[in-house]
Amino acid sequence: MFRKTTTLFLTGMLLAVAPSATATAATDIAVLIDGKVQQYDQSPVLVQDRCLVPLRGIFETLGATITWEEMTQSVTAVKGSDTIKLQIGSSAATKNGQNLTLSVAPQVVHDRTMVPVRFVAEALGADVYWNEDTQSVDIRTANYIGKQFPKAPAMLIDTAKDYTAVVNTNKGTFKIHLFDNDSPITVNNFVFLARDHYYDHVKFHRIIERFMIQTGDPTGSGAGGPGYSFQDELPPKKPYTPGIVAMANAGPNTNGSQFFIGTGDDVQYLNKAPFYTVFGEVSAGMDVVKAIAATPVQEKQWGDEKSSPIEVVTIDSIIIEEK
């Protein structure tokens, strides 16, 4: 029954500021929209630990049209049914007539109106993340599909070493011992994607408490992937049990980036049809995995399976340790 679904399965902070504040150049900070680094005619600035970027650049890239009112020094941005109004030097803003308060007011820097990137992006319906390691603002719209690669990665791991993935989520941290000897191709792929920050801020899009939790798709739809597929490593050397980590797929040799973690006894039914490459096992933090599995869910739009999380659960980062 796992093979018939059409989606991948298991088979399924930062505008310028009030004059009293000081804007500090933040040339080392990158702003990405759907994975593409933005280039502005005025570099981002930091004001009270908030990142400000040129007004026109951020609004128009996110699909909004803007109107400037010189007399009031205010801007109106429209995207679809949403209307956002801001004023230079004022921390007050509105969205669709609702009053909002900015942590930092818009300001002019070198003849450019600068606005808080987080406020603007979120007001226009995008998700915004701060990546401390890369010093970047990561903006993801509904069109985000994740980084795409032309082919699966070359072998980069050393199977003489032990690899552990430290998975940081907004529910806590757990660790996965990776089976690089049993499934070297799959572990190599996982290590490559993790080190490339591919999994950062990716949602757990499918949760069935008695069965498994599934993640690894940057689109959050269950149909996304890295742009390539690679071969299965079957049959699995270890049985499907709670805590086991395996690749999700849409059929033979269609592995990409999505994976699942067994969370309940129902995962053992997969032992009757072992079509999913096992490449690791939770070695610490199973309580966190269980907490994720306990997330309230509702029926998916495309079927009657009750597995769509009501609240957002995400991977913050995956750190690979090797010994």
Round the mean pLDDT to the nearest integer and report it.
91
- Helix proportion: 10-25%
How many distinct folded domains?
Answer: 2
Give the second-level CATH assignment, the architecture of the largest domain: Beta Barrel
CATH topology of the largest domain: Cyclophilin
Could you name the CATH homologous superfamily of the largest domain? Cyclophilin-like
**Poorly predicted segments:** 1-21
How many alpha or pi helices? 4
Helices and strands, in order, run as EEEEEHEEEEEEEHEEEEHEEEEEHEEE
Cα shape: elongated
CATH C-level class of the largest domain: Mainly Beta
Largest sheet: 8 strands, antiparallel
Estimated radius of gyration: 22 Å
How far apart the termini lie comes to 40 Å
Give the percentage of residues in beta strands. Answer: 25-35%
Major β-sheet strand ordering: 17-18-20-19-21-16-15-24
Structural class, judged by helices and strands? mainly beta
